[in-house]
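[09:14] KT: can someone run the structure on this one? pasting the chain below
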Amino acid sequence: MSSDVWPMVHAERAALIDDLARLDDAQWELPSLCAGWTVHDVAAHLVDTARTTRIGFVVGLARERFDFDRQNARGVERGRGASPQQTLRRLRRVASRTSTPPAPLDSRLVEQVVHGEDIRRPLGLAHSYPPEAVARSLRLQLRTPASFGGAKELTARVRLTATDADLSAGDGPEVRGPALCLLLAVSGRQVVRDELDGPGAAALVASRR
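[09:31] RB: done, structure tokens below
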């Protein structure tokens, strides 16, 4: 049910804010898993997307000539404060919002989980995500075409099986691993390649480069 998405999103935002509050300024400028973005940039992106409405998204995309990358870069500029602490204050102010771009509500879970790991893994921070949030995020990514940031096409080439959840999807050589690692892999994060196994693992990693 979509009605239970926001409590999970809000809880994950709060948990990430707690982790960010413990960082020093140097840690904010470390590279994240999101190519070309620092930890600070990812946090700024989360500020911007939490503010984004359906209409605002469409207007902004048209303004950037339907270039998603340019729209995201502009959003980082809008969300980023003059200092990490200012960005953190902005993130706190938007943490309870329920505005969203025109996308399935489970995309808010994908954003919080994947970008949460984009920040945490380079910093060596561990976080226990609710299994339901991770499973729903993975299912949505496997239903969403690559042109919209998903991995639907992968399900025609490999079968993904979570070793810690009742979740399996796709056809072809099997890829096994924790649901969180599968989610990160189908979202293009190479850092988890050593945490996956099965005859389809190499093909999955190669396809997301």
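[09:33] KT: thanks! The first strand starts at residue 159 and ends at 162.
[09:34] RB: yep, looked fine to me
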